[in-house]
Protein: Acetoin utilization protein AcuA
Organism: Bacillus taeanensis
Amino acid sequence: MDHKKTYNAKEIKTPHGKLIIEGPISANTLTQYEFHNDLVAFRSPKEQHQALIEIASLPEGRIIVARDQDMIVGYVTYLFPDPLERWSEGNMENLLELGAIEVIPKFRDYKVGKTLLYVSMMDKQMENYIIMTTEYYWHWDLQGTNLSVWDYRKVMEKMMNTGGLIWYATDDPEICSHPANCLMARIGQNIDLDSVQQFDALRFQNRFMY
């Protein structure tokens, strides 16, 4: 499969200044941007910056960023599912995982996350993929936002809906371990029935167990 990537960009205005939402961007471009110290949801900023550079280097890897001049203040990642998770078991070349999305506190509440997803889907190549994401409450900034787990879940769902991702049922044990966790996905317009059935088989692996 040819993992072609078409660059797109959109400008948004916030009370703190103008942001450029752009991508997919190359690993080389990522090395030239600074990475904000408040991007700490998954690992240290330095480690996460390096992780994004590595993802951008992958044939299928896609990084969309929100930047304030040359400073990255938000991002979303797309790549093949983690080899250790069930979603990789089908070896599907047209299944990408939205692995992480993060925006620094200063620029939250200004639709930056939604715009990251919107710009992601501006690339018509995304119609050739099933895009999935697993949402786990332990990655959410409940303390920083003062939201309950259920209110945060609603915010995440609304944001993902902007990118066309909707809720899907699954029997994945990690997702089922807490009712706020969820699987969301977007089936591209060019996806064939066989691929949909493969994805369904990944979603439900224990349907005949009692």
Observations:
- Strands lie at 8-14, 17-23, 34-35, 62-68, 71-79, 95-103, 130-135, 166-168, 182-187.
- The chain is about 30% helix and 25% strand.
- The first helix runs from residue 27 to 32.
- The mean pLDDT is 94.
